[in-house]
Design brief:
By secondary structure, the chain is mainly alpha-helical. The protein is built from six helices and no strands.
Length: 118
């Protein structure tokens, strides 16, 4: 239980980014890796790192791991202050909802546009 996040990152990398990625692409789906590295700063940093896509996916997962560990430590440090921890959790929730809604808006807008043109 102590190192659950390490296990999660390794399993996520092995299952989603390596084993299921070809299947998702064949069906026209997009993984979080594909979505975030398609454009923008994250994509530029990850694509510049190495020519091998597997290495780039590993770098992406290491970035996720570092960010996750940073947030875990920050949450633990703020645990003893009700107000600070409440703001931390509220802010994290807001960012998660914002990112999810942005993703779904792009996906459904593209699907709607395809349906209208058809």
């Amino acid at each position: 239980v102590r190192y659950f996040y390490v296990y999660w990152v390794v399993l996520y990398y092995a299952i989603v980014l390596v084993a299921l990625s070809p299947r998702a692409r064949a069906r026209g789906y997009e993984t979080l890796y594909d979505f975030t590295t398609a454009e923008g700063k994250t994509g530029a940093v990850v694509r510049r790192f190495h020519r091998s896509e597997l290495v780039n996916k590993a770098v992406y997962c290491l970035g996720h791991f570092a960010f996750g560990c940073t947030m875990l430590v920050l949450g633990a440090l703020l645990w003893h202050s009700y107000a600070a921890h409440l703001l931390f959790v509220a802010g994290t929730t807001f960012v998660a909802v914002w990112n999810a809604s942005e993703f779904y808006f792009k996906v459904f807008a593209a699907q709607y546009e395809r349906d209208v043109r058809a």
